[in-house]
Design goal:
Length: about 450
């Protein structure tokens, strides 16, 4: 039995809720059974915060003996607000007061939840209420409350192309914490505001079928040969996970000065030689193949002081206009291949960072039109996130039958939905293969990026 605690940490009034790093200790296996508690020992059951101020809430998971479970940092914990017009909460548990009122902030893991009551209003300094002494209270599993489909968040800051502002020595400088993306809020009546809302990004849950999960195995790996769990190289039965790694891919044992492991991808300058470079990691998923699949991974563009690689520190260029080539550069981030007669990657789904600048991510099908560009009002240019961690989650659901036009394509970045098409004519074939960082067209310079926390699953139901 595990127990989930919610802890409150005061933040300065006016602090930016979108720029606070995660203090969450996450579980790393979807099979854990969690008992949630609103208050245990000296843990506060309620907190308060001023309008416009920020309050950091954290979860800590312990076993029945009270021992802290130290796992890989991942995206299993989901934070939600019961009323986003009173307070909003970031994907890392930072609560920001919007207007006076009382709101429940919920941390969810699978079907288990833990709740902290937050009071928002003038006179509150972002501190917690008196401690509550109680025994752990077992929660009742509940279905997650649906959240609005489109998030509206504060405007994006200036492009980040250098080190984070925190005074950290270069040798131990970590990547910046992930930040929500900017969207343009819908038009409102004069004198009203449109507060940010929660995301509906899918997360692995108990009962989901995990196809591959590299979050723990990569952090335990000692070389590139054992980064994927239970995977085999070469020829193996289709019922087993299998992989192929390009010979130019590298393994980094410390990308952030904290020992975080990652797959390292070095892209060399095109130097006038136009065309695609390919440094891909191919994962052949195990049978039975599914028509509904979700893939999530973390990405950091720009060489870090400890991660190794090529090019300048914290520098990465996605496009290469005026290079004398036929293309505006750009690159393919993830290919999801289908079960088809040719055994190749025909009729695949491509998640792209295309040129020319400004980069506007989209999903294409290489055999038929997808019409899967960014949602109206969404502002996300990955070029502005060099030196920052980008968490990408892509959901694909094939058509129920050929020509039904009921396929689903969705992409979230850092918890914000940027792409959605729920009437996509993308074919009815199941998905059987993932190809990460497959190609980059005519890179403008020597540069490095890192990929980690890769997980793919089939959602239940």
């Amino acid at each position: 039995m595990l127990t989930a605690l919610i802890l409150a940490v005061a933040a300065c009034a006016g602090a930016d809720a979108n720029k606070t790093g995660s203090d969450v200790t996450d579980l790393t296996a979807a099979t854990y059974s969690v008992t949630a508690s609103a208050s245990v020992g000296t843990m506060p059951g309620a907190s308060s915060v001023n309008v416009g101020a920020a309050l950091k809430l954290s979860t800590k998971f312990v076993d029945e003996k009270g021992h802290k479970l130290v796992g890989n940092k991942s995206v299993l914990i989901r934070w939600t607000s019961s009323d986003s017009t009173i307070a909003i909460v970031s994907p890392t548990g930072v609560v920001k007061g919007v207007r006076d009122g009382v709101v429940n902030i919920t941390a969810s893991y699978g079907n288990e939840t833990a709740v902290s009551v937050v009071t928002v209003g003038s006179g509150h300094d972002g501190t917690s209420a008196a401690p509550v002494d109680s025994a752990p209270v077992e929660s009742t599993p509940t279905s997650p409350t649906p959240t609005p489909p489109t998030a509206t968040l504060p405007p994006l800051t200036e492009p980040v192309t250098a080190a984070p502002s925190a005074p950290v020595p270069p040798a131990t400088q970590p990547p910046s914490a992930t930040e929500p993306l900017a969207t343009q809020p819908p038009a409102t009546q004069p004198g009203t505001t449109q507060p940010p809302t929660s995301s509906d990004e899918p997360l692995p849950r108990a009962g989901d079928r995990i196809l591959m999960d590299g979050r723990v195995s990569m952090q335990q790996a000692t070389s590139i040969a054992n980064i994927w769990p239970g995977a085999r190289a070469g020829t193996v039965p289709n019922s087993q996970l299998r992989y192929e790694l390009n010979k130019d891919l590298k393994f980094s044992a410390d990308i952030d000065g904290k020992g975080t492991h990652a797959l390292r991808v070095d892209w060399t300058s095109f130097n006038g030689h136009c065309g695609d470079q390919s440094h891909q990691s191919i994962t052949y998923l195990p049978e039975p193949y599914s028509k509904h699949i979700i893939v999530s991974f973390k990405q950091l563009m720009g060489r870090t002081a400890t991660g190794g690689g090529i090019g300048e520190l914290n520098s990465f260029q996605l496009t290469n206009e005026g290079n004398g080539c036929d293309f505006n550069a750009g690159r393919k981030m993830l290919l999801v291949c289908r079960v088809n007669a040719d055994g190749g990657c025909y009729d695949r789904m491509d998640y792209l960072y295309p040129g020319p600048a400004p980069v506007k991510p989209r999903v294409d099908n290489n055999n038929r039109p997808c019409h899967c560009g960014m949602l109206p009002g969404v502002t996300f240019n990955p070029q502005n996130y060099v030196g920052k961690t980008i968490v990408t989650t892509e959901e694909l659901k094939a058509e129920s039958s050929p020509g039904a036009n009921d396929g689903i394509v969705r992409v979230w970045v850092n918890g914000v939905k940027i792409i959605e098409n729920t009437h996509a004519g993308i074919g009815a074939e199941a998905f059987n293969r993932l190809q990460l960082t497959p190609t980059f067209n005519s890179p403008a310079q020597d540069q490095t990026e890192y990929i980690w926390d890769v997980v793919s699953w089939v959602p239940q139901g």
